[in-house]
Design a protein that fits this description.
Layout: E1 5-6, E2 13-18, H1 20-23, E3 29-35, E4 40-44, E5 49-57, E6 60-64, E7 67-72, E8 85-89, E9 94-99, E10 103-111, E11 119-122, E12 128-131, E13 138-144, E14 155-161, E15 166-167, E16 172-173, E17 175-178, E18 182-184, E19 186-194, E20 199-205, E21 212-218, E22 222-225, E23 232-233, E24 239-247, E25 256-257, H2 262-268
Antiparallel strand pairs: 1-22, 2-3, 3-10, 4-9, 5-8, 5-10, 6-7, 6-9, 8-11, 12-13, 13-14, 14-24, 15-23, 16-25, 17-18, 19-22, 19-24, 20-21, 20-23
Length: 271
């Protein structure tokens, strides 16, 4: 397993490229393109893979599978918290995104056999939903979670964590293939901070101590969660956004809380 904290490899162009081989796992791939107006990104969904393209910020014209999908993207910053524009693509699909403004495009991939056709996944059908209580409150845009039957393997969501709040908390893990108790899902986080000079913390650790890393996360960093618990916290004065990509043997999200912290979940459960 390589390092879990990845910094951008440049200011423009393909600033992140996570593959199963580079991450040391089996399922999730994640690319992030950062483009100036007039620049373009393009790619091909590999055989045996599927992709969800998410316009994180900005606007651009998207052409895929020989179809012009028109202008995609509406928000100039993810911190507007509006629903993102997203597109599902099956194996073999060619795509090209031409930025009309400064833009960020995420390309989320996992295994796929071509079962589903290309289709828009947002902004229609995505509603901002609160989760948690107190300073554990955060807001979710479910782009392609289990309730939406739109992909073979991919689970994709956005999370907005207000200043001074925690997220992915209470601590939980999804690293065993034992459905319905728990599922085995690899996960990437693409982090943004507002203002951009801020930072957040993420800890990834297992109960047996074989993995225990605490990372100071900066704007546009990616973190990898191969296994274990993985909460995030952001200091007062800064907002945290992240785009999550999960995939594993089964497209279901079932998790187990950390035994030391499960009492919080039990205390805060609705009556």
């Amino acid at each position: 397993m390589g390092k879990l904290l990845l910094h951008p490899r440049g200011e423009r162009g393909l600033i992140h490229q996570v593959t199963p081989a580079s991450a040391g796992w089996r399922h999730v791939g994640f690319d992030l393109w950062r483009l100036d107006p007039g620049e373009a990104a393009q790619g091909l969904v590999e055989q045996g893979r599927e992709a969800i393209l998410v316009v994180v910020e900005g606007k651009g014209r998207l052409i895929a599978t020989g179809q012009d999908w028109g202008e995609m993207g509406a928000r100039l910053s993810p911190f507007e918290r509006s629903a993102p524009h997203a597109l599902y693509l099956p194996q073999g699909a060619e795509w090209r995104f031409e930025a009309g403004t400064g833009a960020e495009l995420a390309v989320c991939t996992a295994q796929g056999s071509g079962k589903y056709p290309p289709r828009r996944l947002g902004p229609q059908g995505i509603d901002l939903t609160p989760r948690g209580t107190g300073t554990n409150t955060r807001y979710i845009n479910n782009i392609a979670m289990e309730a939406r039957d739109v992909a073979e393997s991919l689970l994709v969501t956005e999370v907005f964590t207000p200043e001074g709040h925690w997220s992915s908390w209470p601590a939980h893990r999804h690293d065993e293939d034992d459905y319905p108790r728990i599922t085995c899902l690899e996960e990437t986080y693409y982090h943004r901070l507002n203002p951009a000079q801020g930072f957040a913390f993420q800890r990834v650790w297992t109960e047996d101590g074989t993995l225990d890393e605490t990372m100071a996360v900066a704007d546009r960093d990616v973190t990898l969660v191969p296994r274990g618990h993985h909460p995030c916290g952001v200091p007062w004065g800064y907002e945290l956004y992240y785009l999550n990509v999960m995939a594993g043997p089964l497209r279901k999200w079932r998790f187990a809380p950390h035994p030391d912290h499960a009492w919080i979940m039990e205390r805060d459960a609705p009556a």
